Protein: Helicase ATP-binding domain-containing protein
Organism: Gossypium harknessii
Amino acid sequence: MEKASCLFCGNIPSTTTKALALTVRKSSFLSSLPFSSSPSSLKSICLFVGRRYSFPSTKLQSKQLVCNGGGESSGGHGSSKFATTTKKKPRSKSYIGSNPKISKSENKSTSKPNDSVTRTNILVEELGLFKKQKEQKVQKTKALNVRTLYQNGDPLGRRDLGKRVVWWISEGMKAMASDFASAELQGEFLELRQRMGPGLTFVIQAQPYLNSVPIPLGLEAICLKACTHYPTLFDHFQRELRNVLQELQQNSMVQDWKETESWKLLKELANSAQHRAIARKVTPPKPVQGVLGMDLEKAKAMQGRIDEFTKQMSELLRIERDAELEFTQEELDAVPTLDEGSDSSKPIEFLVSHGQAQQELCDTICNLNAVSTSTGLGGMHLVLFRVEGNHRLPPTTLSPGDMVCVRISDSRGAGATSCIQGFVDNLGDDGCSISVALESRHGDPTFSKLFGKSVRIDRIHGLADALTYERNCEALMLLQKNGLQKKNPSIAVVATLFGDKEDVEWLEENDLADWSPAELDGLLQNGTFDDSQQRAIALGLNKKRPVMVVQGPPGTGKTGMLKEVIALAAQQGERVLVTAPTNAAVDNLVEKLSNTGLNIVRVGNPARISSAVASKSLVEIVNSKLADYRAEFERKKSDLRKDLRHCLKDDSLAAGIRQLLKQLGKALKKKEKETVREVLSNAQVVLSTNTGAADPLIRRLDTFDLVVIDEAGQAIEPSCWIPILQGKRCILAGDQCQLAPVILSRKALEGGLGVSLLERAATLHEGVLATMLATQYRMNDAIASWASKEMYDGELKSSPLVASHLLVDSPFVK
């Protein structure tokens, strides 16, 4: 008989097993979640997949085996015993288990790999002996409907599982919740927090607690399915944790159960994009009638196109994410290498070449020392690093705002510790230092371990950011779920971009596809904009037009045109959300809008916002508004601390002062939240990156009247849906003939991830959504004519002001 190994760990299983682990392996949920493939993780999976209890066999094909998880009589992993099933005698509805009526000798005979006949006979005897018991079980469990393993959806209740199974899960989750609260009280919560996560991580962490509770007799199969249904486990855990924390508060062991680290962690998990994607309701969105004049059948067809699109994009994002992680890991694993012409006696080497020539710019710096720390904008920890000795920083691609990984390095310069993520704050003017803003680790000064050690800083490509991936996936989910719902403010945009030509004929029938100069009377200064720019401004201000695509070739004044559209829309009372795929593009728009007199707010990580526009950032505006309040807060806190030092011997008085300090801190946080909400609510224009628009601070705001996405040709389509779904109409500006989205995976590129929404929308409905800026003001016509012919079908013209312009005519050329 042919041997077969465990599908998870490669060990040879020891007893006849079923297809549950095979189902887990094939589960799309499992494949979509990132988790370590280390032996410890595989062991955890085997522990919760294989149990010593018997359960039904389903869909098990010939020679497909999984281990039984080390039952008491099975021999566990690593045993040389094994079994196979054949297609001739399927047992898809049978319960196979150890039978107390069969002698020990018979049980031993079933474990011999060469005696397949004896094995079959004994299995048949088992079936006969359990026949009556089976019929009783089927009658009891016939009404139970357990969803597929890891299927998304609502938690399973008593109607799905039955009272005894629900009790079993509750007991296990109660033990897990008690362990959580105990770990926090004992000061061991940080380690527990690092192990916890949504989805599969949570399921694996829950298994030991469920294993400690005896499974109700006769319900092994249904318990085994329920114990891997994440929404069910999370729902019970949340309920039990709340009960445990409330009991601790009643016993005066915690002051406010809602402010405990345990409860905060649970809320973090519940608010994560991964949790929402897994635990969402499975009810399909209801198509609405009358979307842009469509009937129900057309709405259903449109929903079908949305479903197909989101499914395809989600898969492509996963493929691209894998490629990004692989590429990033290769970069982080690189080690410094000596150049052939370098001095071998040189004590340190600062560059990691990543396959580049030694003299080229590099995105890794080694052998740095942490010399000081301070607090920067937004409470980030700023750590100043300096090159060892009297050396200077090497030529590098690192610049302010870049995402970096900071690690202690070994003697070879390779990373020797886990990555601390941060952002480059600035490069020192002395050429020897670099300042990095490191993310806080929940009060744990992890960065303090960097002092006195040799440190390595690596640039992390922004696309490898996990938050960006999660927000893109979440946008696709919201598009699929709410795209054609009446409550969706962008329903007209969705219908336009996923409809047929006949679905947008109303644009032409109502003269919304063109414009007339009368629409701009009194709005523009004479001679400021050419005809193509005026057309784009007029179409962009038309509130009845859900989508407009503006193609702006080089030098055609696209940014100036967008500035005018945004300013005029805000003056007409519209609230505008402006985004772009990169921080540099957003800051460029902020700089252009700064002199318009509009109330604009730049939202984003302070470390990644240009210093030239920092005064318009949310953090700076809030800090300036709270300056007096914080000064008063610091004065009161200082007075209370002085009083506390004089009252340390009086426990009751000291406890009262500590409570006042705590209340004072809460008052400051409350004031900060109120000020942030006030600043954003009063803003006429809010600016952020595409993914930054998913920030809860922006999402909690009222619906925007207009969404403007600049450089949309450089953004992948899923990222554009993040801001679009928050507005009533949108303008896509950019040039699909210039820079395209950066895609690492060839498979994802060929699958369509490299096609931007700008490019797709420009060709929709015979181009009725698009307009092009046709006059360039940057280059000599000899240069522009080639670009016009090769890239723009000869439609790009040169302004007479620059058509014959030569470099020698420029005032700065001597």
Notes: The chain has 29 helices and 15 strands. The two ends are 89 Å apart (CA to CA).
